Amino acid sequence: MTTPETGFLHASPGIPGEASHADLVARLANEIYGRGHGPSAPVTPASAQAPGVSREAGVGSRSFGTPPVGVPGITHTPPLDTATIPSVHPLADPPALRPLPEFFVPSLSEAAAGLPGGPDLHRRIAGDHPRATAFALPSVHPQGAGPATEPARHDGGRPSSRPVRTVEYPGDYYFLTSETSRTAPGPAASHRLDEHRLDAHRGSRAGGTPTHVHAPASAPPAAAFDVETVRKDFPALHQTINGHPLVWLDNAATTHKPRSVIDATSEFYGRHNSNIHRAAHTLAARSTDLFEGARETVRRFLNAPSKDDIVFLRGTTEAINLVANSYGRANIGPGDEIIVSQIEHHANIVPWQLLTQATGATLRVIPVNDRGEIIFERFAALLSGRTRIVSVTHVANALGTINPVAEIIALSHAYGVPVLVDAAQSSPHIPLDVQALDADFLVFSGHKVFGPTGIGALYGKTHLLAAMPPWQGGGHMIEDVTFAKTVYKGAPEKFEAGTPDIAGAVGLGAALDYLEGVGLPGIAAYEHDLLEYAQAGLAEVRGVRLIGTARRKASVMSFTVAGHDNEAVAKHLDARGIAVRSGHHCALPALRRFGVDQSVRASLAFYNTREDVDVFLKGLHALARR
């Protein structure tokens, strides 16, 4: 059955007839969970194990209780009496560590049934996926008439029943609430540029004096964010390229570094340089303190429960590979399924493909609609008793789409499935809180958040990291080694074999300190205004096709210009001092969804200005006139 491409996020005021994503997901959750039985999947073959790794090393195998509705050959049994059975969930931390995680599913508002597409939503899902009717989660009354009870969730036939926690995510993680929309000014109504004013501004920028943003009076930039003060902290921005002041619009590839990061890295090598953890001398103690202090900074940045939940790695790519090779090989086997989305970076596709080739598992893909938004009901239809992990990007690197990761996690957890969030593109733009999201794994890279290259971090829930076997072997990650046996340290050390990038970790800590000092809420609001301004301007350039028009986006604008090769467009802009990227952006499946193999990509950061955008648009207008 073909499902309509239902919008999944807060509908824009200018898009009539589309329900908000929160209401659609609430209705979806209510329909999925509103039956009286828990789901069960047919038994799959035993998973092939990586050499030397026992099944007991990973998260235990799951039983989903009562069989699904409408699956041939599977009979129903009465629901278990949950009052007499202890609470255990396949993803729950051991009771000795901390209380079991509470999974949040949005409640159903009274008006949801009357929204467009509402009466047909369940029928579409049920037609595609009969198993989706088999949950038992009562909806929470919108007026909060008493605590609701979670459905029976099973691990070896042992269900649990707890009050449902409802969570309100501040600003939906991108500050696009109706209140913000009323107070934050929108994009300019017109981008017909006053070229004389623009040239004057470029001259003052080259001279190093503060520049006033050129924008029509009808749409002033967002208040209370001093971009010119921020810009002074980034030395690389104050240079000329091909005779023009640099306009850096390649932030999705990498970001420039504030002076504090440069100084922290330089000071480490100048005063504190030593290997860590393995010496009694003073410099080793200093170096170790700086390294572990950076780990604590990452913990605070993500609001992780413990700094031992933070593993330092080379970046997002290595972090995903670690999870695929450690958690994946211990828990995924023939017949199992892994879910990713159609708009992933190659780094969140290829490691899972390698795992499927090694284990006999299958990779499933969440499709996206013509805006570049995942089709949420199609995601619900993909989840099953065979699903072993969901791995999705928070912000798509080629399109800028902000995925609804909170809802993805909630629905996945209802199936007992862990979720990895690729936050490489969201971490510099959106506040992250792994506890509020209830993310099982989250990964990001330092150079995307104004820190050094070659450093990144993995967050993992305590019990998941504890159960995962090491991936690489070497020094520091061991307690004892004999030729007969090796005893490993716990997390995070068992995943950090060898000498790490100590200076990189110090620089990453300094970068996150800087971001927190500026304030991610203000950054997000400012960047949202700037992105809307830029996209409105792109719409006026002859021949430009914007690829990725999701209603919630961050930073990224991918586009093509009719009659012009993408590389030629990028070189034309570079001649004017404007840095953009051309190519496939390591996201070929995402671009091919829109009928292209390559695009030009301009991407914003909080140090960009409306003047930067105007210079960029002026360059495109000049190209279009050729």
What does this structure look like?
With 626 residues, the chain is an alpha/beta fold. Among the domains are: 227-257 and 519-624, Aspartate Aminotransferase, domain 1 (Alpha-Beta Complex); 260-518, 3-Layer(aba) Sandwich (Aspartate Aminotransferase, domain 2). Helix content is 32%, strand content 11%. The protein contains 18 helices and 17 strands. The protein has helices spanning 21-33, 118-128, 178-183, 195-206, 227-232, 259-272, 282-302, 316-331, 350-359, 376-382, 405-414, 434-437, 462-467, 502-518, 520-538, 566-574, 588-592, 610-624, and strands spanning 240-241, 244-245, 247-248, 310-313, 337-341, 362-366, 387-393, 419-422, 441-445, 456-460, 478-481, 486-488, 544-547, 556-561, 578-579, 581-583, 599-603. The strands form five sheets. It has a seven-stranded mixed β-sheet, sandwiched between helices. Strands 13-14-17-16 form a four-stranded antiparallel β-sheet, covered by helices on one side. Residues 1-22, 32-119 and 121-222 have low confidence and may be disordered.
